[in-house]
Predict the structure.
Amino acid sequence: MNRIISLSLIIGLIAVSCTDPNTIGLEVQPTSDNITISDTSNFSWQTTQNESEDSLRTDEALNLILGGIDDSEFGFNSAGFYTQILLRENNTDLGTNPTVDSVELSYTYSGYYGDLEDFTSLDVLVLQEDIYKDSIYYSTSYTLPVPAGMSYVESFSVSQEASENPTLTVKLSGSFGQEILDLENEGLKDNETFLENFKGISVVASGQKTMLYLNPAGSNSFLKIYYHNDESGTDTLSLDFELGGDAARINLFNPKPIESLNQVNGNMYIQSMSGYKAKIEINNTDSIKSILQGKAINKVTMVFDIENGSQSEFAAHDKLFLVRVNNQGSNLFLTDYTVEGETHFGGSLDNDKYEFNITRYFYQMLNNDTYTNHLYLLPAGAAVNANRTILSKDIKLTIHYSKL
C-alpha cells in the first residue's frame, strides 16, 4: 500500500452572514473578528492511502460496459457482460421447417470512454448457467468469459457518435439462430419456457483505449433472427427479442490489484469499474480542537485538485463522492449530503477541482466519539462508467469560523 502524508493545512476565516444559504440550518453564531491561519507546513493534518475496490454491485445497471483500456497509470481495464434475451411475444408459431437466413444483435450506445476507433474485436457466447432478474450480482460474480474459439460473431461495426442513432451492430452466425429455432414452438411459447432452454448470452470485446456504454433499452437495442419456412416462400420472417426491460443483465469487470497501479508523487488514484479509491485519515484532531477553541464553526470545505496533465488521454470523473467510515467499518454518506442535499454537498468537477462541504461531518468528528476520522473518496457511477482520476496529494481543508 502506498502511504502519503500531506503537510499543508490552510485554515481560512471569512466573514459569513448568518443568512448565507450555505450556513442555514447549521446553528452558527454571527460573525465577529476574522482571523486567517496559514502556512503551517509543520502541521500534519491528513494521511491518504490508495486502495483497490473489491467489487461493485452491477446487476440491472443503466449502461452495459464493453471494451478494454490499457492505461500506463492504472493498468489494464476490461469489461463485458451477461444478459438474458427475452421473447417479445408469446406463443410463437415458426411454421414448417424454419431455417435461419441471418441473425442481428444491435445495441444503442449512449457514449464511450477513450477512443472510439480503437474497438478491435468482439465475441458473443451462449451462457451455460442461469442468471435471474431478482438476484443480486457483483462485478466479480463471474469471471470475464474467454471465447476459446466458440464465438458466434461473424462481423461487427460501430457507427460514429455523430450519427443520428449511434449503434453497435453485430452479425451472428446462422448456427446461433438455428439453435434457438430448433427449440420449436413449444420451447418458445413464453419466456419462462424459453429461459429454461436458452439461458442468455455473454458479450466480451478487446481494445486498448475504448469502453462503449450500451443502452439495453435503446431504440436500436434488439436481437432479431431472420428466417423463412415452407409457407413463407421467398419472404423473410423475423423472431424478435428484447434486451432491456425484464432481461437480467450483469456488468463484469476484471480484478484490479493495487500492484497494477503505477503510483507516483504520492498522488491519489480514483477509478470506476471496481478500480481504486482513496482513504483519507484526518490526524491531530486535538490540535484542530485547540485552534478552534472559543470559536463557532460556520463552514468547512475539503478541496481536491486534479494532477496537472493527467487528463491528456482519459477524462477525469464528472463527480466524486466522499463518504465516512463508521466504527463497524461500513461506508456511510455524510449528513452534509443526506440532510443538506447534493447541491450543498458538492463533489462535481469544476475548474479541475472537486470541492465538498463537510461542515456537519467535521463538527461531529470533533465532538462525537462515535464518529471516526476516516473518509473514502469514491467514483460516482462506478458501475456504469469507465472514468479514472488522478488527484494531487495536497488536499486543502478550509474552516470558516467566528469568535464566540
Observations:
- The longest strand covers residues 99-114.
- The chain has a mean pLDDT of 87.
